[in-house]
Structure formats: structure tokens, C-alpha cells
């Protein structure tokens, strides 16, 4: 039995793949080092992330798989559910030991699972792109918080870079404690302690941190939403299908009204 531990990064997981093939010691479990429990029977192999080794594995996958399939593997890493590392490894091992293309080999359970997971992650990506709402702070930064089911922040950055190229913005994942900060030139990933985050109410910034124009904009949007809402045509089931309740915390029209001065 072999337990491989790594630092939790994508490059670290690829390095695990490299080490397993190098040693010809197939893992029975792969865990992040801060979560791993020592084995009573077997060997624990602590893997140090090596970008060169990770790069060799990734290039090998790109040579054998379509762009869609490699993207699905990355989505599996972002899925984060228990056991995703072993599922990732099983798929990659199948790729490297098979003579032909494995993408349509649905008799292998890992192939079908990776495809299904990729669809889930892709769906969450599009919902985040649709439901993220920026709020302008007093210092001119457009700020939004998210807490997606899957780690889709790396997938939505390009969308917001293109859409808001002329604005400084930040999107912070409160569930994973890191965010993306765009400074008009480039986007960088940042991590903050919880105490350093702006005060918020259900993902909406506290009124005293907002730019005055932002407060008026939110009031105007809430009034507009109330007026276009036709009570006679209200369909709660359809509404929830298109906008699940767990996304309401991002939407201005679902927040408590600001009090007028």
C-alpha cells in the first residue's frame, strides 16, 4: 500500500503522477499533506512539487488527449470532492498505459466520471459568471465575494478580465480564502486572513464601505426590479430553476433595502 501526499496544488498532483510512474509504485491513496493520516500498514511517500516533472506529465497528456479532455482533467482537480486525486490518477494512468485514445472508453468508470464532473464544474463556472455582482468601494475598487460549490475562480478570471478591462476589481472566494485582484494590467491571486476581509453581509459589503454612487445604484436597481416584477405572473418554481436560492446572496435585488437619508 502506498499513500502519496502533496501540497494540494495542481502541479503537486501532476508531480505525484510522475513519481508514481518513476517508482512503479501505484498509489492506493493520494491526500493533501495537511490532511493525511499515517498508514498503519504500507508506505507514505511525501512528494515535493516539481514544476519540471509536472510539466512533463502535462505535456504528455496534451499529446495524447484533446484540449477538451485535458480541460476535463483540470476540472476534476477543481471539483475537490473526496477522492478526486485517485480518480485523476486512474484516468491519467489509463491514458499513459493505453495504446489508443481513451476519451470514448466509457467501460472505464474513471472516463465517464471525469466527463460528468467536468460538466458540473463547467455549469458552476457559467453560473458564477452570470451571478457575480461587483460593488464599488469608497476607494474605487469593484469588489465581489463568491463561495462556489467547486473551485471555479481560476476558470472565471478571463471572463472578467475581458468584460471589465478598464476597472480595478477583486473577486474573493470566502470558502477557500483566496481571490483574484485585477489592477488594470494583470490579474494576481491573493490570500487574506478572514480578519482582513471587508465587512460583509451575506456576500454584500456593509453600506459604510461603499462608494456613495454605488448605494444609489443599488437602490435604483432594487426599485427597478420591484416595478418590472408582475405579481400575476409570479412563478416561484421557474424562478428557482433559473436562479437557485444559494445564488441569491450575490444579487442586489435580493438584499435588504438601504434606508434613505
From TrEMBL:
Give the matching InterPro entries: DNA_repair_put, DUF4130
**Which Pfam families does the record match to this protein?**
DUF4130
DUF4130 domain spans which residues? Answer: 85-253
Give the source's domain of life in one word. Answer: Bacteria
The protein's name: TIGR03915 family putative DNA repair protein
